[in-house]
Amino acid sequence: VALSVREVTGLPIKLVGTGEKVDALEPFVPARFASRILGMGDVVGLVEQVQKTVDREEMEKLAGKVKQGKSISLEDYREQLRQMLNMGGLEQILDKLPGLKPEQLAAAKFDPKVFKRQIGIIDSMTPKERRHPDVIDGSRKRRIAAGAGLPVQDVSRLLKQHKQLTKTMKQLSKGGGMQRLLGAMRKGGGPPQLRGRR
User: Fold this and answer.
1) What's the predicted TM-score (pTM) here?
2) Total structural domains in the chain?
3) Rg (the chain; Cα; Å)
4) Residue 86 — very low, low, confident or very high, per pLDDT cuts 50/70/90?
5) At 138, which CATH number?
6) Smaller CB count within 10 Å for the chain: N or C?
7) Which of 21, 14, 20 is closest to 6 using CA atoms?
């Protein structure tokens, strides 16, 4: 549609909307826009988006924890959820990654209510539970669920996701991926190159 309007009016396209809100407007760069349409992603755009929305201090603090082999607390996880909300969620991020098929993007359809519910669950925990989630047993889960006004299953699902995130971040640290990502953000350059990929 935008390209048709450009043809009719003769006016250049300056911005393109990638969502329903005003903050979903991005500068229109023809080559990068074409790459996304063709399923080749826009990794440079993703790095720029991260630079604008992610709190570098929080990210470096989290990276330091991972590097030292420390566990990621639920307080850290809550901060990540908040930053994901600021970035527009998984859908906006995955849309910029190369090689993803339309059906994979559809499966990652972003519902901000899910993240907000998870933040509500973490807010219902005590500071000790947020820092040491292993202490959360059945009775604690029921109390947390009641405090958040959600089923116990939602609490269990959140704890499982947090455990998986912890495992993933440790794997990322071992491969040096976290340090390269931080380096790219500090320099404001392009995306870091991952080892073993050509």
Assistant:
1) 0.54
2) 1
3) 19
4) confident
5) 1.10.260.30
6) C
7) 14
